[in-house]
Structures are given as structure tokens and as C-alpha cells.
Write a structure and sequence with these properties.
about 35% strand, alpha+beta, six-stranded antiparallel β-sheet, about 290 residues, 7 helices
């Protein structure tokens, strides 16, 4: 087993090397274009991701590589806690998406806007477009920019107005504000990036920006976070949903309107009242 880091802006994690379809080529390319991939899929094609994709890794995110086969790496993602594996969320990614861990540096920062340009130098050319919730170690600050450590021993610059320190205090308003950045974004099974989110991916990525090591899946989030009575839930807390005799399948932020959540494939991230079906399957609440 060896340590590595994601060296592309977004790497999708698959159930096996055989899981991707022809239409998924933009996501598995050596230089993936996840934005174009997401845009290319209609609802039926997105439904076909069920049982194929698991989650996504963001730029510079560490992974443990367990094995390699035919250009693919079997990994676990320690920043994404999971009951499936005590070392982190398991799955497969193209080996071309992985590089060496960034050099150690202090003061981690997170991108808290939908996307931000990684620059070769302050106000210089763009090296990559990075997603919301990308966390990087800062090296120095200069003229409204922060230099950050990148995989394979490199570095780059990000505008300060796209960043926040991951240890900054936060409250319910901050959590909801971050989630509302993606109102109208189409649901993506396994999504944890600015180009598509699923229900637990929204919770996980907002938590990452705020410096919280939140489990990746909804049922694990319900098990890990402090549960509270349903009638004590307030905006910024979490609602969890399950059908009779079934595990938890959905999660969203409690909001003044009802719930802020990534609903399901074919729908878009929304903030509105709970439907009758949601109320009938509401089983738990937790303090985030």
C-alpha cells in the first residue's frame, strides 16, 4: 500500500475498472473534463451511473493505493470516512489521475466558491480550474493571492477571495450559504464537486470546506453525527430519510423554507418545503 494524491481537478471513483461506459470517457481521460461529461448526460444516462460510480476525489486529495491493474488503481480515500472500510471510501480510479502527495505546508485553505483558477503565478496564466471544497496547504501570501502546494512537488496560486481557512468558525448561516451556491445544479450520483452533487455529497463537501471530517454516505452521516429529536431540528441541522425496514437513503440541510438538498437523479438541488413523501419517510435529525 502506498500514499498518493489526486493530481487532476476531479477524479471519479468507480466500482471497478470495467464500470465506465463509452459516454464516460471524458471522466476517465488522463486529463478528465468532468464539466463536459456532466453536461453530456441526460436523465437516463445519469441513472445508468447507479452501481458504476461511488464518489469523487478533488485535486490534491490523499489516497491509499492498494493495488494496480491495467492502468487503474484500487484506492481508499481517507478524507471520506465510510463504514465500508476503516481506512476510507474504497473504489477504483485511473492511475493517470494520481501523483505524489504535495509537500507538507501549514495553514490549509479551502475553495469556498463554485470553482477557482489555479494560476502559475499571481495574476498569471491558468493551470487548472479547481472545484469547490478543494483543500490545499498554503505556503505564502502576496498581493491578494495565496501560493499553495500541489501534487508532484509543485505549487500554484489562488485568489484570496476564492478561499477560506478551514478552521474559521462557522454557523448555520454559513452552512446554508455554502449549500445555496449550488441551487439549480443537476443531481449527479456519486458527485462531490461543483459539476454535480448527490445528497450526501452536498453535506460532505460543505463539511470539508468547514474543516469537518464528515462521512461520505447518508447512513454513515446519521450514525456519526449527534442525533437530536426531530422537533428540535433547526436550520443548519440535518434531516435523514428512510423507508420502512430500509437503511437511510437521503439527507438534506434543515432550512427555514423546509430543506436544502440534492433531491434525486433527474432533479436539481433545491431549497423548499418537504413533500408529503419526504415527511412520511423522515426518520431522524442530527446536529451538523
Amino acid at each position: 500500500m502506498k500514499l498518493a494524491a489526486t493530481k487532476v481537478p476531479v477524479s471519479t471513483v468507480w466500482t471497478s475498472p470495467d464500470a465506465p461506459r463509452d459516454i464516460d470517457a471524458p471522466a476517465t481521460a488522463a486529463q478528465p473534463d468532468v464539466a463536459a461529461w456532466a453536461k453530456s448526460m441526460d436523465t437516463e444516462t445519469r441513472l445508468g451511473l447507479h452501481g458504476r460510480t461511488l464518489t469523487q476525489l478533488l485535486f490534491a486529495e490523499p489516497v491509499l493505493v492498494r493495488s494496480e491493474r491495467d492502468g487503474w488503481s484500487e484506492i481508499t480515500a481517507p478524507w471520506q470516512p465510510s463504514s465500508q472500510d476503516e481506512l476510507g471510501y474504497p473504489g477504483w480510479v485511473p492511475s493517470s489521475h494520481l501523483g505524489e502527495l504535495p509537500e507538507s505546508a501549514a495553514d490549509p485553505v479551502a475553495i469556498d466558491v463554485p470553482s477557482a483558477s489555479l494560476l502559475a503565478e499571481p495574476d498569471g496564466r491558468e493551470v487548472a480550474e479547481l472545484s469547490f471544497a478543494t483543500v490545499l496547504a498554503s505556503i505564502e501570501h502576496a498581493d491578494g493571492y495565496t501560493r499553495v502546494a500541489t501534487p508532484d512537488g509543485g505549487s500554484g496560486w489562488l485568489a484570496d477571495d476564492a478561499l477560506r481557512a478551514v478552521i474559521e468558525p462557522s454557523g448555520a448561516d454559513d452552512r446554508l450559504r455554502l449549500g445555496e451556491l449550488f441551487l439549480g445544479l443537476e443531481y449527479l450520483w456519486g458527485g462531490t464537486c461543483a459539476y454535480g452533487l448527490d445528497c450526501s455529497g452536498l453535506i460532505h463537501t460543505v463539511g470539508r470546506v468547514l474543516g469537518l471530517r464528515t462521512p461520505r454516505d447518508a447512513h454513515d452521516q446519521a450514525a456519526a453525527l449527534p442525533n437530536i429529536p426531530l422537533d428540535e431540528a433547526r436550520p443548519g441541522d440535518l434531516y435523514f430519510f428512510a423507508r420502512d425496514g430500509k437503511p437511510i437513503h437521503h439527507v438534506g440541510f434543515v432550512s427555514a423554507a423546509g430543506m436544502l438538498h440534492a433531491s434525486e437523479t433527474g432533479k436539481r438541488l433545491e431549497n423548499g418545503p418537504l413533500t408529503d413523501e419526504r415527511r412520511a419517510t423522515l426518520v431522524a435529525a442530527a446536529r451538523f
